[in-house]
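Lab notes, practical 5.
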Amino acid sequence: AFIIAATYFPQLASAEQAVPLADARPSSTIAAEVDTPLTMEEAARLSLIDQPLLTGRVAKIQAEEQQAAAAAQLPDPKLSGGLKELPIDTPEAFSVRRDNFTEFTIGLSQEFPRAAKRRLQGARKQLDADADRAALNNEQRMVRRDSSLAWLDVYEAEQALKLTRRLADEAALQVHSLEKDYANAKASQADWFAAKVDAGLVEDKAHDWLHHALRMREGLARWIGDDARRPLAEALTMPGFLSPLPSLIASSDHHPVIGSLDKQIEASATDVALARQSYKPDYSVEVYYAYRRDFSDFVGIQFTVGLPYFTKDRQDRGLAAALQQSHASEDRKRDLLRELHTQISQDYVDRRHFEERVADFDASIIPDASRRVEAARSAYQSGRGGFDVILLARRSLLDVQLQRLALAVESARAQVRLDYWSASQPSPGESP
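Output from the prediction step:
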């Protein structure tokens, strides 16, 4: 494992930040967490608490499950009523008493779609809910991934600010020392001004990193609210062991993204079955009662059956469309698997590449850059070198340290992306 020291700058946050009212954690727990350094793993955990993206998906799943239960039921019965056989052009015109055919009717009808069709309709809605459940799992992973990447953005900016501040302090001391040497004629005015310019440039660089750190804090707050104001953990530790690429690729075949698409394929197959059911007629039954004021009353029953005779322009086309949609879903899955395998392979290559470069920086590049600064300082103090050599060596050391930091964070980002493809499911306590 490789470890990078972290720091926290008071100017980046205020201790008086309010705790979100919507947070469901006990106040005593929140108070304890405010002073606790925020790790990347904790940021990922907090991002799943009261997350609108996830709670909205849960509500959608619950709605679709209710719709699935309703879709499998018989349609509601229908109540009808009216006036029949009213004469309009005889001496009995518009009389409801003189003509023995005139009647008041009231009826009740019920449609009876085939049981197989109702079952398929309910299953189709349930598959929508199952697909959204897989999408919820994927969104949980996405939220964890994106909040972790946001944490790394803050970490990199604050680490760079720490390195730059340290160099700024050294530059300020150097300016103060050269000012005395210049006053005592031990240093040239050019060296003094060079040190002042260098100190100003380093201070400007620190100000730029401070601005970047503040922006990244706001980006992290998008996922975890006011917990983003907490100090970061003092170290970033990434696993030294990297799973073999074939096992990572194999695990992606069971990723929730693929699971959601599998449910869509099942839904397409159900649509095909429903299209085949449309060739079979449905029927309905109606019973009615007819009242005649001065004559006998009537009762009746009638049956209605659909006649799917003209299938060429309706049922045949509906079945063909369902079959094509099914083929399209299968092709989307094949394409998505290719895309996932490519992304995992790229992240795997990135993870190893950046980790190896970090090891090289630790083993030789940074130690050599530090020795260069010391050698330039010794040469200047002994009168065998110029002050500009010290400035150049010191800037080079800062650039090397910042480059090493960027490589380490890029390695961590690649690991976070790999975890998104292969990590275990979020624990039940982390679900919205």
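Observations recorded by the TA: Strands lie at 3-5, 78-84, 103-112, 235-237, 283-291, 298-305. The CA atoms of residues 176 and 192 lie 9 Å apart.
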